[in-house]
Amino acid sequence: MRLLTYIQDDQPLVGALLDETTVLDVNAAAYSLASQKIDASSLKGVLEQGDSALQIIQELLDEARQSRQLYEISNFLIPLESVKLAAPIPNPSKVVAIGQNYIDHCREQNAPIPERPIIFAKFPTSVIGHGDAITWPPDLTKEVDYEAELGVVIGKRARCVRKEDACEKGDRKAGG
After folding, report:
1. Partners of residue 85 on adjacent β-strands
2. 122-158 pLDDT tens trace
């Protein structure tokens, strides 16, 4: 399941990718069709509701695949190309980052590969949506370096989790 936040009529909405080109409007579909109601007003709120909310969204996705025409008529399906993607969680409480976490980047900088992760924090206000402009004060620097980021939302408290225990269910895989 791939969840997202998108902007429609200047409002952030929760969506789920039905396929590579189509977004399910989770809030509208859940309000109209789900037997158990969930608060899908924000992705952060959905995650805070736990597995039961995610199960409802999965059921809506399954139904939309089986009854696609009904979902299209009901305007619950939106072409991905027509939406503005926002940051999935636009207001995270914290952002923890790992520096020099891939070998090629270390080599590009002629830096030694760290023996332990280099952990640092970023300000939550640095989170932007897909395609948003990256801005900085012009008197700070004339040039910025490129960087790729991968965000991971951990929906449950986790501490000292072993690699083999990172996914509690076999069907949960990155991007799936």
Report:
1. 6
2. 888 888 888 888 888 888 888 776 665 666 666 667 7
* CA-closest candidate to residue 108, choices 149, 136, 146, 151: 146
C-alpha to C-alpha distance for 18 and 77, rounded to whole angstroms: 8
Query: Is the overall model pTM greater than 0.70, yes or no?
Result: yes
Is residue 148 helix, strand or coil?
A: coil
Distance CA 89, CA 38 (A): 18
Contact present, 114 and 55 (Cβ < 8 Å):
no
- 3-state SS string for 99-129: ECCCHHHHHHCCCCCCCCCEEEEECHHHCCC
Q: Are residues 97 and 122 in contact, defined by beta-carbon separation less than 8 angstroms? A: yes
What's the rounded Cα separation, in Å, for the pair 17 and 62? 11
